[in-house]
Every structure is written in C-alpha cells, then in structure tokens.
Write a structure and sequence with these properties.
α2 (35-41) links the parallel β2 and β3 (45-48). The longest helix is centred in the middle third of the chain and has 21 residues, at 167-187. The protein is an alpha/beta fold. It has helices at residues 10-16, 35-41, 55-64, 82-92, 142-148, 167-187, 192-204, 208-222, 229-242, 246-259, 264-276, 280-291, 309-321, 325-338, 343-349, and strands spanning 2-3, 25-28, 45-48, 70-72, 78-79, 101-110, 116-126, 151-161. The protein has a five-stranded mixed β-sheet. The protein has a three-stranded parallel β-sheet with strand order 1-2-3.
Length: 354
C-alpha cells in the first residue's frame, strides 16, 4: 500500500484484511496524522518515501520491499467484505511459488450519488523484479504482467473502494490528477491512455466538447480493434448525446458494434440515441438485447446498472407508454431487487393517493 494521512480509512481497510498476508508493507509519502502509528499497530513494515508526483514510483518502492512470492495491493480507502475475505483466503491457499498467474479482482467504486462503478484490476500477481508499475497517474501493472507472460485469471472477488463517495475529496483528486496528467502528456505525447483519462476528467466536469476531443484522439491512437476501443466508442457516443447530436451518436455506436457486437454499453447508448430520435420500437429491441448480455471481462470501468436497473428503467417506461402495466411492473420489481431504495420504482409500485 501507499498512504498519506489516512488515519480515518486505514483501520477499516487493514482490519478487513487482517491475517490474510504474511507481511504488510506501507509506503508513507508524508503523513502528518496518526497513519504510521495505526499501521504499526497492525504489524506493518513502514517505508518513508518523499512524494515526487508519481504513483508508480511510490508503488514500486513497496514492491522493492516485498519478500513474499505473491503481491496483493490495496488502497487505504479499500475494504474487503467478509464474504470476499473468505474467497481471497481460499485463493491464496492455492497459489504456487513458481506460478506465473495474475488474478483479477473486481473493484466496486462507491459514488457520491449512491451507485457504483466497476473496474476489474489485477490485484494479485507474482513478486518478480521485472513486474513494476508504469505511468505517473492511473498507474498500471498490466504491461509488465504481459511482458512476463503472466496468465490473467479472473475472479469474482470484490474490493470496495470508498474514496469517490465523498464529493469534496473526489474533486480534490480530480484536480490532482489533472495536473499529473498534464505532466504525463508532456512526457508521453503519444500515449492513448493519457488522452483517455484527460477525456474522462473533462467528461466528469461536464465539458463535453473537450471530452469528445480527447476521446477521439485516444481512439485514433489505439485503433478500432483494441479492447479499450469499445469503451471509447461508448464514451464518444455518450458525449455526442449530451451535445444533442443523436444521429452522430448512433453512427458511432453502429461503428463500434461492427468491432464489438456483444458490448452491452454500446447497445445501451444506441438505444438512448434511438429513443431521442423517436424510434422507440428499435430502442426497445436494443435494451432487451442488453439484458441478455453479461458484463465483459475488461480492464475499464462500467456502470453495472447498464446490465440491470438502468436498462430496465427505460423498458418500464416504454411498457407503460403502450399500456402494458404488467410488464412495467416486472421491470420495476426487478429494479427494486437490485436497488431497494430506488425512488421512482417505489413510487410506481406504491403510488401516493392524491
């Protein structure tokens, strides 16, 4: 782990993984609170490292001090729920010292709006001198795993990331990341990942045209067939929708679906465009198709609601419009099963008398 001033998060995080690992290494980049004292109480080895605006550099210091055969990485605002702790415990017992397998855990990021974004990340991998982090921000270990020939194995183990639930802290992280990405762009002007993340920051700030520009550049540098291209097609389509360019949005979705015919997010975005173009029957066909698709195994984030309550919400409204209240009720009930506090579903199923 790398930490700084995490006295509020650290006890919960370390408590959720107590006893899982043979050693606990915390690289502290300048804490002025009780972070190191708390870490020591959990038996952590604490390494001081002056912050140099480079997440990879700090994470690699942690790797330099690891002595086990395998490495598990966490952030201080991560939590492993008991059921996932048990799953991970079982997995750790199967690891072989000479294995070249890396394991993907699902990171569920809580949002300020009460939802989640899901991103799959290689969180458990062999401890080898050639496996090191890359990039100043939004650091990645994947390229090093690929170069070593690691087999990527997917799991259903979930790590909850709570750091985005606080909107004030989230905005502070955005500002920090923007500065680091601008430095990264100067150092790596041809890196499509930098443009992708700059696009994401612009999108989060509701600067749709700027986001569209960055995403378009990223897609051009990646090419249409790379796995991340389906995410870029979806984000370009979404930005066009927010700019009220529905025909262009649908064109982008159709192009993306030529390369990724089973991508649920692209079908969802196409349905939205069709709905705004008053082609409701075609939109309904697309949303029904989404419900038959599963979330892909990929290293980019996606709102899981696309494969559930978000799609069902649209189908429920369409069903009501044509007077099919029975089908609408099926969707509202399914939404509540997924999101028990969904306000609109509660109101539709239990209307308030005037």
């Amino acid at each position: 782990m790398i930490v700084r001033n995490e006295e509020r998060n650290l006890p919960r995080c370390l408590g959720s993984v107590r006893g899982l690992c043979d050693e606990l290494i915390l690289v502290d980049t300048g804490s002025t609170d009780r972070t190191k004292e708390i870490a020591a109480s959990f038996g952590a080895k604490i390494v001081d490292f002056a912050w140099i605006d480079d997440f990879s550099a700090a994470r690699n210091v942690a790797l330099d001090h690891a002595t086990g055969h395998y490495v598990l990485w966490l952030d201080a605002d991560d939590v492993l729920e008991p059921a996932d702790n048990r799953k991970l415990t079982d997995l750790l017992q199967t690891l072989q010292p000479d294995s070249r397998a890396a394991y993907v855990l699902r990171c569920a990021c809580d949002t300020a709006e009460g939802g989640q974004l899901i991103v799959d990340q290689p969180r458990l991998f062999p401890n080898h001198e050639t496996i090191r982090w890359e990039r100043r921000v939004h650091e990645v270990i994947n390229p090093a795993l690929y170069r070593m020939g690691c087999e990527i194995r997917w799991t259903d183990i979930v790590v909850r990331h709570t750091g985005y639930a606080n909107p004030v802290l989230h905005e502070q992280k955005r500002q920090r990341n923007l500065l680091l990405l601008q430095r990264e762009l100067a150092e790596r002007p041809n890196d499509p990942f930098v443009y992708y993340y700059l696009g994401t920051l612009a999108f989060e700030r509701e600067q749709w045209l700027e986001a569209l520009g960055y995403y378009t550049i990223s897609l051009a540098k990646w090419g249409r067939t790379e796995s991340i291209a389906c995410k870029l097609f979806a984000m370009i389509a979404w930005a066009n929708q927010l700019l009220l360019r529905y025909e262009e949005s649908m064109r982008v979705c159709n192009e993306g679906l030529q390369y990724f015919p089973d991508d649920g997010e692209l079908w969802f975005r196409k349905a939205v465009a069709l709905r705004y173009l008053l082609r409701t029957t075609e939109a309904e066909i697309c949303w029904r198709r989404v419900l038959k698709l599963g979330r892909p195994q990929s290293f980019y984030n996606v709102d899981p609601g696309v494969y559930g309550h978000l799609t069902r919400h649209n189908l429920a409204l369409i069903a009501e419009e044509r007077g099919d209240n029975a089908e609408a009720r099926i969707h509202w009930l399914a939404i509540l099963a997924e999101c028990p506090r969904h306000t609109e579903a509660l109101l539709r199923l239990n209307p308030v008398e005037p």
